[in-house]
Each structure stands twice: as C-alpha cells, then as structure tokens.
Amino acid sequence: MVERYYPRALSSAEERLRYYAARFDTVEVDSVFYGLPRVEYAERWAERTPPGFIFHVKAYGMMTWHEVDERSLHPELRGYAYERTERGRVRLPEPAMLERAFGLFAEAIEPLRRAGKLGGVLMQFPPYFAASDPTRLARHLDYLESAQAMLEPTGATMLVEFRHPSWVTGAQRARTMRFLADHGMAYVSVDAPQFPERSTMPPLAEATAPWAYVRMHGRNRETYFARTASAADRFDWLYSAEELDEWREPIRRLAGQAERTWVMFNNCRYDYAPRNAREMAGVLGDVVAPRAGGASTGEPAPSADRTGPGDQLGLGV
Which domains does the chain have, with CATH numbers? Predict the structure, then answer.
C-alpha cells in the first residue's frame, strides 16, 4: 500500500497519515492486535489528523483469546502465569494477566479518547469462540460481558466480529442479535469467501447498536485459510464493481437503522483497500458522509459533496 497508494514524495509515517486523513474520515488500527503500543503513538495519531477523524482500534490478540507472540509481551505482563507453546506463543493467561492487558490497552489508546477521535474497539474472535453447544455458548456470552466491562474505561463501542457461523445459524441468529443489542454491542457484518466445507461467516447485515460496522475481507478462497507471509497476502483481493454493488442495499439499510455506519476495507494487498473504498462511495451515493479533512491536492475526496439522510456513513481501511 505504501508503494501503490501514497505519492513517492511522502517519506514519513506522519506525511502518509495526513495524506490519508485528508481523503477518508476513519481508519482501522490493526497493528495493536500483535502488540500493545506505547501511549505516544496514539498521541501522535490524534495530533496528525483533523477534527472529527475517527480511529477504530483492533483489540490486542490476548483480549480475544488468540495466542500471542511471547516476544511481544508488554513488560508489565511478563510476571504473570501462562502457558507457552512450542512456537513461543502465549496461551491461557491467568485472569489477572488478561485483566491487566485490558488495562494497558485502555491506557495506550487514552489519547484518542481525550481527543474525541476514538471510535470502536474491534473484538475479532477466533473460530473456536463458537456457540455450537449450550456449555460453550454460556461461557462465551459470559466472556463478552466481562470484556465489555473491562473496556468500559475506553468509553468505546465494542465491535464484535465472530468467525464461527454457529452464532448466526438457525434460531441462534435472533438470540445472538438480541444479546448484542441488549448489551449495546455492535455486530460486525463481514464479507468473506464462502466455503461449503469450511466454517466461515455468512454476509449478514445487522445493526445491534447505535453504530453499525461492516468489514470487507475480500474473497480470495486460495489464501483465506492459508499460512501466508503477511496479512496482505491472505487478503489479496480487488473487489469488482458487481461485487461492491451486492452490498449497496444492505449497507443503505444499515445506514437507515443506525446512527452511524462504518464500512472498512481489509483487502490490504497493494492499494486495493483505498481503491475499493473510493469506489464504494460511488456505489452508496447520498448516504456517504462528507469527509472530515479537506484534500490537499486536486484529487476529489471519496465522499465529497455527498449529503443525504443523516450523512452518517463513513468509509476507511
């Protein structure tokens, strides 16, 4: 993306962030999934973006029951008890360690909250976080409530992305949506490859909170479950105009149900994500909100001069 999307003259991270924020009104920070950042990072993000720009932050992997690299552990987490896998991954942290991870996460993103630029916290759970039997379901619902309580200091909406279809299969779909709505948690709608022989989430557009959230993962069946060198390799997909148009009505419906709807592109190969986000603005038309910052070049913003029912739909990567 650095090579394909940003002008060559932009050599620093600060310049690239300012360039991006002049064209889009939001961004999803996924790097935090791999390691808790220093608070100075969030301070700089807030300083380098215009008023109204929103950062959605993906939760640290430990917070969503993923194994994390032991080498990435924050110094304050190293004294707790946990299991270490043969690959040097941390699993099954003791409850106090998990609670402290939530606390460190909240401290790291506090500058965004103070600046009024913190959006949602994306809790993307692994496929084994399922609703496939009553015991597992009860345990996982309890954890969703506990996680929300530990996120309370951030003041952020909890964005819940499931990766096992048992959450939305048959009668469980209504129960899941009711639980999320009752707790003010936002269901994350996803577009992803579909496999008859593998468990993936279907493309359901649901609004369970004042904010609705859609993530576009691409549809590369060859790489979606593969061990790739990078996330960009896994999500190597450029949406066609026809594929984007499939989401026209579902997203417009979400925009009518929620106070604000966010559509985020995670197809992070080359410049695919910002290119498709700009194209999606054209597909969605009058529901796309004007961007927060003014573009510094003659390039039109993805949502410039588009106003409509509430101007409440933001696009980003």
Answer: 2-316 (3.20.20.410)
